[in-house]
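Box 3.1 A note on notation
Throughout this textbook, protein chains are presented in two layers. The first layer is the amino acid sequence; the second is a token string describing backbone geometry. Keep the layers aligned when reading.
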Amino acid sequence: PTAAACTINPLGLAGNLAGFTVTVACVTSAFTENGTPVTTYNITSTASTGAVGSMTYVERQFQATISRNN
């Protein structure tokens, strides 16, 4: 099995969230479980605004892992 990566950088937001920058990264891995091919997707989304080190800097991150039978 082979592994692949997918990344979407950066995503622009509108309205009240226009000041935030969002990046989404995805890493896939493939393996076999009891003879069944399975693909796992590790997805990380990070949103931030402000200057790093300043009192107004904010960053939040969400991670999820999803698997599916092929």
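The chain has no helices and four strands. The two ends are 12 Å apart (CA to CA).
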